Amino acid sequence: MPERSADARRQILKQILDSVDHRLSSRLREALARPGPTARPAAGQTVVIAGHRAAGKTRLLPLVGRLLERPTLDLDAELERSSGRSLKTWVVEDPSAFRAAERQALLALPPGSLVAVGGGFLSHHPDALAGMFTLIIPVSFETYRDRLMTNTSRPRLRPGVPLLEEIASVFYEREALHARLPTVPLVDFLRAFWREVSP
Prior knowledge:
Blueprint: H1 6-19, H2 25-33, E1 47-50, H3 57-68, E2 72-74, H4 75-83, H5 87-93, H6 95-107, E3 114-116, H7 121-124, E4 133-136, H8 141-150, H9 163-180, E5 184-185, H10 186-197
């Protein structure tokens, strides 16, 4: 397959920037224009798109796939398809079985895969990501809260507490954990391509 032209890659990068949390997009654009670290996956290295629930991982997955010229897989959608179960009920009714299934599904993928994982994957399976290029999608707390308050299709993680309390506690607990894990910030990944296509 021929490599995409600089114009095509520039267009994909702009689409990615337009698709991230609108509260963060201008900051990302400014960061791309400044010097900073860059990061690209090695040939044959599995790329995992990770981050909070409602960060936009599923929306960004096909765009990153076009940029890297790799086929994509949404792990949650694949788990629903292969199990015939709704994630909303599976996570609530049998969370340990769901977590075991998502871990097994990731580890069964061939090297070089490009996959988006669910919002809890980093918290529950950080060791499973060893050797993988884990790209973390940023989201502000305000956007995270707004999206989860309006999207009733997502499972409750702590149904015994009020929804706003659940949203805040899960966000900040996972945010602290994500900061300790070896992940690649989205801006570092985008900067590697941005420098190649900027006039």
